[in-house]
Amino acid sequence: MEYVFLLLIAVGLAYGVGCLGRTRKIGFGLAFAISLFNVVIGLIAVLCSKKIENVEPKEMGESL
C-alpha cells in the first residue's frame, strides 16, 4: 500500500515538473519523461531549458 502512495507522489511531482516544461523549449512530454526517471534531474533540465517567446497561458477549460 505504501508503494502505491509513493508512486502517486512521484507521478504528481513529475507532472508538476512537466507543467513547468510547457513554457520551455523542452516541452511537457520530455520534461515529464525525465522527471519520471528522476525528479531532480527533470527539474534541472527544465530550468536549464530556454523559455519560449510569446507564450500566453491558457485558461482552464478553454479549448483550441
How many strand units?
A: 0
Share in helix? 55-70%
Radius of gyration: 13 Å
Number of helices: 3
Measure the end-to-end span: 39 Å
Structural class by SSE content: mainly alpha
Instruction: Choose one word for the global shape.
Output: flat
- Overall pLDDT score: 88
Instruction: Report the portion of residues in β strands.
Output: under 5%
What does the main sheet amount to?
A: none
Q: H/E series, N to C?
A: HHH
Low-confidence stretches: none
Give a quick precis of the structure.
It is built from three helices and no strands.
Structure description:
The chain is built from three helices and no strands. The termini are far apart. The model has no long low-confidence stretch (mean pLDDT 88). The protein is an all-alpha fold and 64 residues long.
Characteristics:
about 60 residues; mainly alpha; 3 helices; flat
